[in-house]
């Protein structure tokens, strides 16, 4: 939202709609069968793969400002100013940085996202980057060392790895079902027209969601 | 949209959002960095309880907020007890709980709209480095109105699955939700552009 990545109406709409989507994913009962997984972090990682780095990060920022304003939009109905003084605040900051990393890696070019690049992006951005912000804040607030804190966050690693894998599958499935979702920023109209047209031709616009 | 705000007419409710943030923020900072003994921690706890009572939240309100963060507090306590002597583990865990409760008090006594205004005002000085506070305020308002739309998409998909006996999973649920959501974003974007919303 700075002057440099300036957003047009289409970008603003995508940012707002995705922020809302992440909030709604957080309200859902845990999905995934045996392991209870909240879908919210899926939404965070998808913001990077679908919206790209800057619009994705903006969507996270919008969600977090609404949480700060007192709306219980985080998983499990958490929200309000309390979230930002809790030991997990670093992970919320990490969401923003993580989405930028995911977007930069996965959306480095305009071509179809590959399994390899999407996996690398989601793991580096959605796990490594988020933990890299989360653990130091947690250590500072709880008074444990970085090593001890890292050890305690290992508890969440299996779940996060599963979510990363699901995010990769969802990203590729979305590309097949509705490639327009990945539409480029309206900043570069010439590039947008080309990529949107070719990708729209890959899958006809009549593809209905199987809902 | 359900907010954490609890209507009331306490002194804390009447305090303007910006000043309330500064006041409670200062208290949070003080409790966070003070090297506590059990006595000063007890005094801090008394302050927090008093603040909840003054704000008209009562002990039930205090418990409700505690219950929300209980998983986090238990998680913290377990690892504190593993790595630290029980005394400092107790002090750290209680201190974290107190600070979260105080911050929650801001949200309990401030209307979301007042907080949104305060956020917009706080961002306005950043216009020098290119941050458009009015644009962010528009985005926040837009997102609030969009949330019920996305919820209705999610409900429709769940209903359709039930009717067909499909077991909802990430792929059968999230992919259709993403498609509908991004379609809606395109329509919304066209509507915004038609109304000349550009930055």
UniProtKB/TrEMBL annotation, chain B:
Residues in coiled coil: none
Record flagged with keyword NADP: no
UniProt cross-references to InterPro entries, sorted A to Z: ABC/ECF_trnsptr_transmembrane (IPR003339)
Highest taxon listed in the record's lineage: Bacteria
GO cellular component terms given for this protein: plasma membrane
Positions of transmembrane segments: 21-54, 66-84, 96-116, 136-154
Membrane topology: Multi-pass membrane protein
Compartment(s): Membrane
Keywords recorded for this protein, A-Z: Membrane, Transmembrane, Transmembrane helix
Name of the protein this chain belongs to: Energy-coupling factor transporter transmembrane protein EcfT
């Amino acid at each position: 939202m700075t002057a440099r990545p300036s957003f047009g109406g289409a970008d603003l709409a995508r940012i707002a709609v995705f922020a809302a989507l992440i909030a709604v994913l957080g309200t859902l009962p845990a999905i995934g069968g045996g392991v209870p997984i909240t879908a919210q972090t899926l939404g965070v990682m998808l913001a990077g793969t679908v919206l790209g780095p800057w619009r994705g990060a903006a969507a996270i920022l919008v969600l977090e400002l609404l949480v700060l304003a007192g709306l219980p939009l985080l998983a499990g109905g958490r929200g309000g100013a309390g979230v930002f003084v809790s030991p997990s605040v670093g992970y919320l900051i990490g969401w923003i940085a993580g989405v930028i990393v995911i977007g930069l890696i996965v959306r480095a070019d305009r071509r179809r996202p590959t399994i390899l690049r999407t996996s690398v992006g989601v793991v580096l951005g959605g796990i490594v980057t988020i933990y890299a912000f989360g653990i130091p804040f947690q250590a500072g607030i709880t008074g444990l060392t970085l090593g001890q804190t890292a050890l305690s966050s290992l508890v969440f690693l299996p779940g996060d790895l599963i979510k990363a894998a699901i995010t990769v599958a969802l990203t590729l499935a979305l590309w097949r079902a509705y490639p327009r979702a990945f539409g480029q920023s309206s900043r570069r109209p010439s590039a947008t027209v080309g990529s949107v047209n070719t990708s729209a031709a890959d899958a006809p616009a009549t593809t209905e969601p199987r809902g | 949209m359900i907010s954490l705000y609890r209507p009331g007419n306490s002194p804390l409710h009447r305090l303007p959002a910006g000043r309330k943030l500064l006041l409670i923020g200062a208290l949070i900072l003080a409790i966070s960095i003070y090297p506590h003994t059990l006595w000063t921690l007890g005094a801090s706890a008394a302050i927090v309880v008093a603040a909840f009572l003054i704000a008209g939240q009562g002990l039930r309100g205090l418990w409700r907020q505690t219950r929300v963060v209980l998983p986090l507090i238990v998680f913290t306590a377990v690892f504190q007890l593993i790595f630290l002597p029980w005394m400092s583990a107790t002090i750290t865990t209680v201190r974290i709980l107190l600070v979260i409760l105080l911050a929650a008090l801001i949200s309990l006594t401030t209307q979301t709209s007042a907080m949104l205004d305060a956020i917009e005002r706080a961002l306005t000085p950043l216009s020098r480095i290119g941050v458009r506070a009015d644009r962010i305020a528009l985005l926040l308002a837009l997102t609030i109105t969009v949330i019920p739309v996305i919820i209705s998409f999610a409900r429709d998909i769940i209903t359709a699955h039930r009717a067909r006996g499909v077991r909802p999973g990430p792929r059968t649920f999230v992919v259709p939700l993403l498609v509908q959501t991004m379609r809606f974003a395109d329509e919304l974007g066209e509507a915004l552009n038609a109304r000349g919303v550009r930055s």
